Amino acid sequence: MSTSYLQRLVEVMDQLRSPGGCPWDAEQTHESLIKYLLEESYEFIDTVAESDRSGMREELGDVLLQVYFHSRIAQDHPTDPFSIEDVAKVITEKLISRHPHVFGDTKVSGSDEVVANWEEIKAAEKGRTSALDGVAISQPALSLINKLLYRAEKYGVEIDMPTYPESLPATSESVGSALLAVISWAHKNGIDPEDALRMQSKQIMREIAQQEAR
Questions:
Q1: Which residue, among 59, 85, 62, has the nearest Cα to 74 in the 3D structure?
Q2: Is the CB of residue 101 less than 8 Å from the CB of residue 114?
Q3: Sign (positive/negative) of CA torsion 16, 88, 33, 53?
Q4: Host H or E run for residue 42
Q5: Nearest to 154 by CA among 109, 119, 111
Q6: For the whole model, what pTM was predicted?
Q7: What is d(CA 93, CA 168) in angstroms, rounded to the nearest whole number?
Q8: pLDDT tens sequence across 162-203
Q9: What pLDDT score was predicted for residue 198?
Q10: Plot region of 163 (φ>0 → left; ψ -120 to 50 → alpha; else → beta)
Q11: How many CB atoms neighbour CB 59 within 10 A?
């Protein structure tokens, strides 16, 4: 019986990380591989934008490698090891539990209700009560701000935000132009826009925490 390539990848990673395998692979840690996970994810995004089917196939393989690599590293943990099978088990159970309209008796009217149910189930599973719970702080500042605004709105948290002239129609072009102008302004004045925006994200998080504490 032939072995699937998914199982073969498990075997290859095990050989690379085991004695007599590759010295570089054996030295890697979760921390040392983070940059590669980010790079491979961005490279896959580029192939999607270019509708490059061959590139998508290759870059998805690189992303999959990172999942298998981290899982193989996790097997060596002295007190809390886990394998790629454990990872697959967790995501499989999560997909089933968060799709009760497919695997249960829940009825939905459309994708908006699916998303709402997903968020409610997720919050209940993780015991989340704050708009800040589960927000990935390490993500780029722009996406972090967007996530914080989404969470604040969802949890009904009122926060003070700077406003833009309402007379200007909000389109992808006008918003992009405004963002470009701000980034250019920051660049000309020697200010890192990522750092500046991250400072603002911290202020938003403080404000959300203060509002929730009342």
A1: 85
A2: yes
A3: positive
A4: helix 30-49
A5: 119
A6: 0.76
A7: 46
A8: 888 777 888 999 999 999 999 999 999 999 999 999 999 999
A9: 95
A10: beta
A11: 20
